[in-house]
Amino acid sequence: VANPMSPAPRPLFIPVILGTARKGRMSEAAARLVHAEVERRDGVETELIDIKTLPIGIDDAGEAVKDARFSATIDRADALVLVVPEYNHGYPGLLKHVLDTNLKEYIHKAVGVCGVSAGGFGGARVIQNLLPVLRELGLVTIFWDVNFSNVQNLFDENGALKDPSFVKRIDKFLRELVWMAKVLRHGRENVPL
Amino acid sequence: MPKAAKIVCKPCGLAMNRHAEKLERSVGPDETRHVDPDLGGVVREVHTCPGCGGSATRKAFLPTLEKGD
Protein backbone atom coordinates (compact mmCIF):
# COMPACT_ATOMS: atom_id res chain seq x y z
CA VAL A 1 0.00 0.00 0.00
CA ALA A 2 1.43 3.37 -0.97
CA ASN A 3 2.28 5.66 1.91
CA PRO A 4 0.45 8.97 1.32
CA MET A 5 3.23 10.77 3.20
CA SER A 6 5.90 9.51 0.82
CA PRO A 7 7.12 11.95 -1.80
CA ALA A 8 5.97 11.25 -5.34
CA PRO A 9 8.45 8.97 -7.06
CA ARG A 10 10.71 10.55 -9.64
CA PRO A 11 9.30 9.86 -13.10
CA LEU A 12 11.24 7.47 -15.24
CA PHE A 13 13.17 9.08 -18.07
CA ILE A 14 13.18 7.05 -21.27
CA PRO A 15 14.61 8.85 -24.30
CA VAL A 16 14.08 7.51 -27.80
CA ILE A 17 17.12 7.51 -30.09
CA LEU A 18 16.62 7.77 -33.83
CA GLY A 19 19.60 5.79 -35.03
CA THR A 20 20.26 6.99 -38.56
CA ALA A 21 21.18 10.21 -40.32
CA ARG A 22 20.51 9.00 -43.85
CA LYS A 23 18.49 11.31 -46.11
CA GLY A 24 14.97 10.05 -46.78
CA ARG A 25 15.09 7.82 -43.72
CA MET A 26 11.82 6.02 -43.06
CA SER A 27 12.88 5.35 -39.48
CA GLU A 28 11.99 8.90 -38.53
CA ALA A 29 8.25 8.23 -38.73
CA ALA A 30 8.73 5.06 -36.67
CA ALA A 31 10.78 6.94 -34.07
CA ARG A 32 8.19 9.71 -33.82
CA LEU A 33 5.44 7.14 -33.30
CA VAL A 34 7.36 5.30 -30.57
CA HIS A 35 8.27 8.60 -28.91
CA ALA A 36 4.60 9.64 -28.88
CA GLU A 37 3.65 6.32 -27.30
CA VAL A 38 6.30 6.71 -24.58
CA GLU A 39 5.12 10.26 -23.96
CA ARG A 40 1.53 9.05 -23.36
CA ARG A 41 2.54 6.85 -20.42
CA ASP A 42 2.02 8.04 -16.87
CA GLY A 43 5.13 8.44 -14.80
CA VAL A 44 7.46 8.54 -17.79
CA GLU A 45 9.30 11.48 -19.32
CA THR A 46 10.94 11.21 -22.69
CA GLU A 47 12.85 13.02 -25.38
CA LEU A 48 13.49 12.23 -29.02
CA ILE A 49 17.20 12.22 -29.80
CA ASP A 50 18.09 12.42 -33.48
CA ILE A 51 21.71 11.33 -33.93
CA LYS A 52 21.87 13.55 -36.99
CA THR A 53 21.76 16.61 -34.73
CA LEU A 54 24.43 15.58 -32.24
CA PRO A 55 27.66 17.59 -32.47
CA ILE A 56 29.94 14.57 -32.31
CA GLY A 57 33.09 14.66 -34.42
CA ILE A 58 34.36 11.78 -36.49
CA ASP A 59 38.10 12.54 -36.26
CA ASP A 60 38.38 10.46 -33.07
CA ALA A 61 36.18 7.99 -31.28
CA GLY A 62 34.81 6.95 -27.90
CA GLU A 63 34.80 9.26 -24.92
CA ALA A 64 37.29 11.56 -26.65
CA VAL A 65 34.45 12.98 -28.74
CA LYS A 66 31.60 12.80 -26.25
CA ASP A 67 29.02 15.57 -26.27
CA ALA A 68 28.32 16.85 -22.74
CA ARG A 69 24.60 17.41 -23.33
CA PHE A 70 24.06 13.97 -24.85
CA SER A 71 26.04 12.35 -22.02
CA ALA A 72 23.98 14.19 -19.40
CA THR A 73 20.80 12.96 -21.09
CA ILE A 74 22.00 9.37 -21.09
CA ASP A 75 23.15 9.69 -17.47
CA ARG A 76 19.67 10.87 -16.48
CA ALA A 77 17.97 8.08 -18.44
CA ASP A 78 16.52 4.99 -16.77
CA ALA A 79 16.11 3.20 -20.09
CA LEU A 80 16.65 3.78 -23.79
CA VAL A 81 14.63 2.99 -26.87
CA LEU A 82 16.65 2.61 -30.05
CA VAL A 83 14.89 2.91 -33.40
CA VAL A 84 17.31 1.40 -35.86
CA PRO A 85 17.12 0.68 -39.58
CA GLU A 86 18.81 -2.36 -41.05
CA TYR A 87 21.51 -1.49 -43.57
CA ASN A 88 23.11 -4.48 -45.31
CA HIS A 89 22.04 -6.67 -42.36
CA GLY A 90 23.86 -4.37 -39.91
CA TYR A 91 23.36 -1.23 -37.84
CA PRO A 92 24.24 2.26 -39.06
CA GLY A 93 27.90 3.03 -38.42
CA LEU A 94 27.05 6.48 -37.11
CA LEU A 95 24.81 4.98 -34.42
CA LYS A 96 27.69 2.81 -33.19
CA HIS A 97 29.99 5.83 -33.21
CA VAL A 98 27.48 7.82 -31.13
CA LEU A 99 26.80 5.00 -28.66
CA ASP A 100 30.53 4.50 -28.10
CA THR A 101 30.96 8.05 -26.79
CA ASN A 102 29.58 6.97 -23.41
CA LEU A 103 30.11 4.07 -21.05
CA LYS A 104 29.38 4.63 -17.35
CA GLU A 105 26.16 6.39 -18.33
CA TYR A 106 24.70 3.09 -19.59
CA ILE A 107 25.53 0.73 -16.75
CA HIS A 108 22.58 -1.29 -15.41
CA LYS A 109 20.01 0.54 -17.53
CA ALA A 110 17.34 -1.05 -19.70
CA VAL A 111 17.25 -0.88 -23.47
CA GLY A 112 14.74 -1.95 -26.06
CA VAL A 113 15.24 -1.97 -29.81
CA CYS A 114 12.79 -1.22 -32.62
CA GLY A 115 14.02 -2.57 -35.94
CA VAL A 116 13.06 -0.94 -39.23
CA SER A 117 13.35 -2.43 -42.70
CA ALA A 118 11.89 -2.22 -46.16
CA GLY A 119 11.58 -6.00 -46.28
CA GLY A 120 9.53 -8.47 -44.34
CA PHE A 121 11.83 -9.17 -41.39
CA GLY A 122 11.34 -5.82 -39.66
CA GLY A 123 14.97 -5.29 -38.80
CA ALA A 124 15.28 -8.64 -37.01
CA ARG A 125 18.85 -9.03 -38.22
CA VAL A 126 19.97 -5.59 -37.12
CA ILE A 127 18.49 -6.21 -33.69
CA GLN A 128 20.40 -9.48 -33.36
CA ASN A 129 23.61 -7.76 -34.46
CA LEU A 130 23.14 -4.91 -32.05
CA LEU A 131 22.52 -7.02 -28.94
CA PRO A 132 26.19 -7.89 -28.21
CA VAL A 133 27.14 -4.22 -28.56
CA LEU A 134 24.47 -3.15 -26.09
CA ARG A 135 25.53 -5.87 -23.66
CA GLU A 136 29.15 -4.72 -23.75
CA LEU A 137 28.05 -1.15 -23.07
CA GLY A 138 26.49 -2.37 -19.82
CA LEU A 139 22.88 -2.04 -20.92
CA VAL A 140 20.27 -4.68 -20.09
CA THR A 141 18.24 -5.77 -23.10
CA ILE A 142 14.59 -6.73 -22.90
CA PHE A 143 13.00 -9.63 -24.75
CA TRP A 144 10.31 -7.66 -26.57
CA ASP A 145 11.17 -5.88 -29.81
CA VAL A 146 9.13 -3.88 -32.29
CA ASN A 147 9.63 -4.88 -35.92
CA PHE A 148 8.64 -2.27 -38.49
CA SER A 149 8.47 -4.46 -41.62
CA ASN A 150 7.78 -2.98 -45.08
CA VAL A 151 8.12 0.42 -43.48
CA GLN A 152 7.45 2.23 -46.75
CA ASN A 153 3.84 1.01 -46.49
CA LEU A 154 3.30 1.66 -42.78
CA PHE A 155 3.10 5.45 -42.75
CA ASP A 156 1.40 7.96 -45.02
CA GLU A 157 3.14 11.00 -46.54
CA ASN A 158 2.55 12.93 -43.31
CA GLY A 159 4.12 10.24 -41.15
CA ALA A 160 0.77 9.02 -39.79
CA LEU A 161 0.55 5.33 -38.94
CA LYS A 162 -1.64 3.31 -41.31
CA ASP A 163 -1.59 0.02 -39.38
CA PRO A 164 -3.05 0.51 -35.87
CA SER A 165 -1.87 -2.92 -34.72
CA PHE A 166 1.51 -1.31 -34.08
CA VAL A 167 0.08 0.65 -31.15
CA LYS A 168 -0.61 -2.63 -29.34
CA ARG A 169 2.82 -4.01 -30.24
CA ILE A 170 4.52 -0.89 -28.93
CA ASP A 171 2.45 -1.07 -25.75
CA LYS A 172 3.66 -4.62 -25.06
CA PHE A 173 7.25 -3.54 -25.72
CA LEU A 174 6.99 -0.49 -23.45
CA ARG A 175 5.30 -2.36 -20.60
CA GLU A 176 8.29 -4.68 -20.43
CA LEU A 177 10.78 -1.84 -20.81
CA VAL A 178 9.17 0.21 -18.02
CA TRP A 179 9.17 -2.79 -15.70
CA MET A 180 12.84 -3.42 -16.35
CA ALA A 181 13.63 0.28 -15.94
CA LYS A 182 11.96 0.37 -12.53
CA VAL A 183 13.71 -2.76 -11.33
CA LEU A 184 17.11 -1.60 -12.51
CA ARG A 185 16.67 1.86 -11.00
CA HIS A 186 15.90 0.24 -7.65
CA GLY A 187 18.96 -1.95 -8.07
CA ARG A 188 21.29 0.88 -9.06
CA GLU A 189 20.21 3.03 -6.16
CA ASN A 190 19.78 0.44 -3.41
CA VAL A 191 21.45 -2.89 -4.09
CA PRO A 192 25.21 -2.89 -3.53
CA LEU A 193 27.48 -5.12 -5.54
CA MET B 1 39.89 -5.88 4.40
CA PRO B 2 39.22 -2.13 4.68
CA LYS B 3 36.29 -0.87 2.65
CA ALA B 4 36.71 2.07 0.31
CA ALA B 5 34.88 5.23 1.36
CA LYS B 6 31.47 5.82 -0.16
CA ILE B 7 31.23 8.39 -2.92
CA VAL B 8 29.03 11.30 -1.86
CA CYS B 9 26.67 12.75 -4.49
CA LYS B 10 27.62 16.40 -5.02
CA PRO B 11 24.09 17.77 -5.63
CA CYS B 12 22.34 15.65 -2.96
CA GLY B 13 24.99 15.01 -0.32
CA LEU B 14 23.85 11.40 -0.09
CA ALA B 15 26.11 8.36 -0.02
CA MET B 16 25.99 6.69 -3.43
CA ASN B 17 25.38 2.99 -3.94
CA ARG B 18 28.19 1.02 -5.57
CA HIS B 19 26.27 -1.35 -7.82
CA ALA B 20 28.62 -2.41 -10.60
CA GLU B 21 32.16 -2.93 -11.76
CA LYS B 22 32.79 -2.44 -15.47
CA LEU B 23 35.87 -3.54 -17.35
CA GLU B 24 37.02 -0.86 -19.76
CA ARG B 25 39.19 -2.44 -22.41
CA SER B 26 40.06 0.59 -24.49
CA VAL B 27 41.98 3.00 -22.29
CA GLY B 28 44.20 5.95 -23.11
CA PRO B 29 48.00 5.85 -22.85
CA ASP B 30 47.91 7.68 -19.50
CA GLU B 31 45.94 4.82 -17.98
CA THR B 32 47.85 1.80 -19.24
CA ARG B 33 49.57 1.46 -15.85
CA HIS B 34 46.14 0.81 -14.32
CA VAL B 35 45.34 -2.06 -16.67
CA ASP B 36 44.80 -5.30 -14.81
CA PRO B 37 46.82 -7.84 -16.79
CA ASP B 38 44.58 -10.72 -15.73
CA LEU B 39 41.37 -8.98 -16.79
CA GLY B 40 42.74 -7.08 -19.76
CA GLY B 41 41.49 -3.61 -18.91
CA VAL B 42 40.82 -1.02 -16.25
CA VAL B 43 38.11 -1.93 -13.77
CA ARG B 44 35.85 0.94 -12.80
CA GLU B 45 33.35 1.02 -9.97
CA VAL B 46 29.96 2.46 -10.90
CA HIS B 47 27.97 4.29 -8.21
CA THR B 48 24.44 5.71 -8.32
CA CYS B 49 22.80 8.25 -6.03
CA PRO B 50 19.57 7.04 -4.37
CA GLY B 51 18.33 10.64 -4.31
CA CYS B 52 18.74 11.94 -7.84
CA GLY B 53 19.86 8.88 -9.78
CA GLY B 54 23.11 10.50 -10.90
CA SER B 55 26.09 8.27 -11.51
CA ALA B 56 29.78 8.41 -10.75
CA THR B 57 32.75 6.14 -11.37
CA ARG B 58 36.21 5.59 -10.00
CA LYS B 59 38.94 3.08 -10.61
CA ALA B 60 38.26 -0.03 -8.58
CA PHE B 61 40.63 -1.18 -5.87
CA LEU B 62 41.59 -4.76 -6.71
CA PRO B 63 43.23 -6.68 -3.89
CA THR B 64 45.89 -9.15 -5.01
CA LEU B 65 44.47 -12.65 -4.93
CA GLU B 66 46.34 -15.24 -2.89
CA LYS B 67 47.04 -18.64 -4.36
CA GLY B 68 44.01 -20.85 -3.96
CA ASP B 69 41.54 -17.93 -4.05
SSE arrangement:
The complex is a heterodimer of chains A (193) and B (69).
Chain A: E1 12-13, E2 16-18, H1 27-39, E3 44-45, E4 48-50, H2 68-76, E5 79-85, H3 93-99, E6 109-116, H4 124-136, E7 139-141, E8 146-148, H5 165-190
Parallel strand pairs in A: 1-3, 2-4, 2-5, 5-6, 6-7, 6-8
Chain B: E1 17-24, E2 42-48, E3 55-59
Antiparallel strand pairs in B: 1-2, 2-3
Brief digest:
The complex is a heterodimer of chains A (193) and B (69). Chain A is of the alpha/beta class and 193 residues long.
Task: Describe what this molecule looks like in 3D.
The complex is a heterodimer of chains A (193) and B (69). Chain A is an alpha/beta fold and 193 residues long. In chain A, 35% of the residues lie in helices and 16% in strands. The longest helix of chain A has 26 residues. Chain B has 69 residues and is mainly β. A 3-stranded antiparallel beta sheet of chain B has the order 1-2-3, with no helix packed on it. In chain B, a hairpin with a 6-residue loop joins strand 2 and strand 3. Chain B is elongated. Classes of the chains: A alpha/beta (193), B mainly beta (69).
Major β-sheet profile of chain B: 3 strands, antiparallel
Name the strands of the widest sheet of chain B in spatial order.
1-2-3
What is the percent of helical residues of chain B?
under 10%
Q: Determine the strand fraction of chain A and express it as a percent band.
A: 15-25%
Percent range for β-strand residues of chain B:
25-35%
Distance between the termini of chain A: 28 Å
Number of helices of chain B: 0
**How many strands, what sense, and barrel or not for the largest sheet of chain A?**
6 strands, parallel
Mean pLDDT of chain A: 95
Measured on Cα atoms, how large is the radius of gyration of chain B?
Answer: 14 Å
Rounded to the nearest angstrom, the distance between the terminal CA atoms of chain B is 15 Å
Topology, number of strands of chain A = 8
Compute the number of strand runs of chain B: 3
Q: Roughly how much helix do the residues of chain A carry, as a percent range?
A: 25-40%
Structural class of chain A: alpha/beta
Overall geometry of chain B: elongated
